[in-house]
Amino acid sequence: MADIEALPEAIVGEIIDGVLYTHPRPRPLHAYVEVALASDLDGPFQKGRGGPGGWWILVEPGIELPDAPEVVPDLAGWRRERLPALPGDRSIDVVPDWICEILSPSTRGYDQRIKRPFYARVGVPYLWCIDVEAQVLSVNRLERGGWLEIAVHGDADVVRAEPFTAVELSIGEWWAGAVPLV
User: Fold this and answer.
1) Which letter does DSSP use for residue 92 in this model?
2) Cis omega (within 30 of 0) on the bond before 163?
3) What CATH class has 27-60+74-178?
4) For 65-86, b where at least 16 C-beta lie within 10 A, e where not — what string?
5) Model confidence pLDDT, tens digit, residues 106-143
6) CB 3.0 to 4.6 Å from 26: which of 3, 30, 70, 125, for a disulfide?
7) In the sheet where 136-143 sits, what is the strand order?
8) What was the pLDDT predicted at 16?
9) Beta strands 63-65 and 55-59, pairing class
10) What pLDDT is recorded for position 179?
11) What does pTM read for this prediction?
């Protein structure tokens, strides 16, 4: 953890299997998509407005899991029956029920080669990968220890994506930050 704390502010660090991985902080479009998705899920799933509630949805939470004293997915969600309350000022040590990684040029390989298999190994049931450049959402479910891609959505699709099928998501709105404003 001392290695992570010593990093410059512009660098994000994570430790997985004893290896420190670093990359630059997300760029504005990455951050925009992150906030847009969190906003779409917050009302219906975290607050129960227009949806079932029962979830914690967090942006860039610090998670402490086996063989990873610090891992920071772009977004993560926990069903409240598994994580009844947020732990306050310490890292969460419960495996998320859902993780979303937003792929960017500087993190795409790392997210796919390092984090994706790690999430499968620790038992995250659902993994979404959002490719902002391609404007694609890939929805994956953990089955028999590996990822099964169950859906790929893009452009202006309106979707019900596992595990959040109770509410439609207009993913075209996520790409709005990519369109130059006139």
Assistant:
1) B
2) yes
3) alpha beta
4) beebbbbbbbbbbbbeeebeee
5) 889 999 999 999 999 999 999 999 999 899 999 999 99
6) 30
7) 55-59, 75-79, 98-103, 126-131, 136-143, 146-154
8) 81
9) unpaired
10) 53
11) 0.87
